[in-house]
Design goal:
Length: 142
C-alpha cells in the first residue's frame, strides 16, 4: 500500500506518493483538472495503478487556523473523492507549504514557467513528508 497526496487547486493538482514502506514522498506530477467526472476517473486509475490505500489532501487554512473559501472547496473535493474511491481521506494542514516550495525551487535556481510547473508537486511532497513524519512518530510513541 502507498499513500497519495494532493495539493488541490481548482485548475492544477500537485501529486506526490509515498514509497511502499511509507517512509518517503516522491513527486508524481501535476494533474490539470478537467471536470468532476474526468477528474474522478483519473484518480480511480491512480489508486489502482499504484495500490493507493489512503489519500492525504492539503487543507489551505488561514494563518489563524480558520477555514476560508479555498479550504471549503478543498473539503468538498475531498468528500467527492472519498465517496467515489471508498478510501480514507486525510485533510492535512498545508499552511506555508507553498512558501517552502518556492524557497526550495529558488535555491535550485528554478524560475518562471518551470517553477510554475513544479510548485504544486513540491508542495505535495512537503505535505506528504510532514504527514508521514507525524505518522511515524505516532507509531513509535509509547
Amino acid at each position: 500500500m502507498r499513500i497519495l497526496c494532493l495539493d488541490f487547486g481548482e485548475k492544477n493538482i500537485g501529486l506526490a506518493m509515498s514509497d511502499k514502506l511509507l517512509m518517503t514522498a516522491q513527486a508524481l506530477g501535476q494533474y490539470r483538472a478537467v471536470n468532476k467526472k474526468e477528474d474522478l476517473k483519473y484518480f480511480k486509475k491512480l489508486v489502482t495503478k499504484y495500490d493507493i490505500g489512503e489519500i492525504v489532501i492539503g487543507l489551505p487554512l488561514r494563518m489563524n487556523g480558520s477555514s476560508g473559501t479555498r479550504a471549503e472547496k478543498t473539503k468538498e473535493f475531498a468528500s467527492r473523492l472519498e465517496k467515489a474511491l471508498n478510501l480514507p481521506i486525510i485533510l492535512w494542514d498545508e499552511r506555508l507549504t507553498t512558501q517552502q516550495a518556492l524557497k526550495i525551487l529558488r535555491a535550485q535556481k528554478i524560475r518562471g514557467k518551470a517553477q510554475k510547473k513544479l510548485i504544486d508537486q513540491v508542495s505535495a511532497i512537503i505535505i506528504l513528508s510532514s504527514y508521514l513524519e507525524r505518522r511515524q512518530l505516532k507509531s513509535h510513541a509509547p
